[in-house]
Request: fold
Amino acid sequence: MSDIDTILETLELVAEDGIDVTAATYEDYFKVSPESIKLMEHMDHLMRGRMLNALIMMVMMPEGTPKKDVIHFEVKTHSANGVKSIMYLQLFQSFHKAVKSALGDNWTSDQEGAWKREITQLMEKIERNFATL
Ligand code: HEM
Reply:
């Protein structure tokens, strides 16, 4: 199974359990990135929800040009608002943590590996985009 399929499986399990990880993700994210509280203070829960949905879509996209284009677009538009590269890593990690904690004891080392590898790959692409700004 590909890493993306494994990640999709974890998200499906969370959805089947009726768990919404949005609140847990942002709660953890704001703890590790207090700077983001101010940046996002004008965003209501709907905007924050849409942003997390966009993040999920980005994570789920297979490798290729559309994924590269989406990453390029997000980095370009977000950097104009003061969003830094480290904040993406922190947000991905908070999301990963929330999904992992929602699945509790059922979390496997394969799932952990797939999430870590995908986050590393996303961050390589994001940092490459920051380098061209
Ligand atoms: C892969 C990661 C991310 C994706 C896919 C993403 C996506 C989005 C999307 C789709 C919106 C528009 C929401 C709407 O419909 O109103 C948005 C807004 C916003 N995002 Fe993100 N985001 C990401 C990471 C971040 C990070 C790390 C920050 C750091 C604080 C951030 C800060 C913001 C802010 C401040 C806005 C509001 C911009 C405005 O006022 O127009 N985003 N994001």
